[in-house]
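Hi R.,

As promised on Friday, here is the backbone we talked about, encoded as structure tokens. Could you run it through your design pipeline when you get a chance and send me back a sequence?
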């Protein structure tokens, strides 16, 4: 497998934890690339630098909120001022709200989800994507929820579906560049930080989510192979298959299974009519 990113500069959002952190380690230590991590937690960034040991000189970071357009404009100006030409930007940063019925989620909170998960990708594409090398580009991390949406994930599903559609459009608008969309399934990251789970829920959920290092390695290999579309994780592959074979019925099967699962965080997602019917 040819390493087209050796010695090149890669930008990774959400690099302080989860998939972004694991990708930063892989690209610095295995691909021998230079990584600029973007996040908001400086303590975690410094901890990552310590973990990189003798490779730490190939990792730097910028602290800013990716949901702000102005921050991306300033970051693009910084790259130009420092004469940094990135080969790739990996748009990985994201947030997942608690599982809730749509009527229980405020419009304001929904906009926050869209700004973080989708518009951050738009801003990165608008201001940093044009600065990448001619054969470089971007890899956008969507979700299996963009393949088959789960009840209770309304805004999250919308944001990740938008990332998927946006990436596909860019791929055909910039055929000379590398534009990828990667769709991982449920992964053991701190994306669940806003979801309160009981010990029972955590135990049950741990059986279906994939280890973050395993998912990151698959994403890493997909990018090195310049894959433009990649589904990652056993559940994501199941969603992909069901969405192709049963566009309507597949969603019904998955959501029916989740509604019957004895997991507290899924409770209350479906609204009931006064007569008790769903």
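Update: got your reply. Pasting your designed sequence below so it's all in one thread:
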């Amino acid at each position: 497998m040819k390493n087209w990113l050796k010695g090149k500069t890669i930008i990774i959002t959400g690099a302080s934890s989860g998939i972004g952190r694991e990708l930063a380690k892989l690209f610095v230590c295995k691909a021998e690339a230079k990584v600029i991590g973007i996040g908001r937690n400086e303590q975690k960034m410094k901890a990552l630098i310590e973990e990189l040991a003798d490779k730490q000189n190939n990792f730097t970071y910028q602290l800013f909120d990716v949901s702000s357009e102005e921050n991306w404009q300033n970051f693009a100006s910084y790259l130009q001022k420092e004469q940094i030409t990135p080969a790739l930007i990996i748009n990985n940063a994201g947030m997942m709200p608690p599982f809730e019925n749509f009527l229980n989620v405020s419009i304001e909170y929904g906009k926050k989800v869209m700004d973080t998960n989708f518009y951050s990708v738009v801003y990165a594409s608008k201001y940093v994507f044009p600065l990448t090398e001619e054969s470089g580009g971007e890899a956008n991390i969507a979700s299996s929820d963009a393949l088959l949406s789960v009840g209770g994930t309304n805004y999250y599903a919308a944001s990740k579906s938008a990332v998927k559609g946006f990436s596909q459009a860019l791929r055909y608008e910039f055929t000379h560049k590398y534009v990828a969309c990667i769709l991982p399934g449920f992964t053991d990251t701190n994306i669940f930080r806003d979801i309160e789970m009981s010990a029972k829920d955590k135990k049950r959920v741990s059986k279906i989510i994939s280890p973050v290092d395993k998912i990151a390695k698959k994403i890493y290999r997909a990018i090195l192979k310049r894959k433009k579309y990649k589904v990652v994780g056993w559940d994501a592959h199941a969603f992909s298959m069901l969405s192709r074979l049963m566009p309507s019925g597949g969603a019904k099967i998955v959501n029916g299974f989740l509604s019957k699962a004895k997991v507290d965080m899924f409770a209350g997602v479906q609204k009931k009519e006064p007569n008790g019917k769903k």
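One thing I noticed while checking it: The mean pLDDT is 89.

Thanks again,
M.
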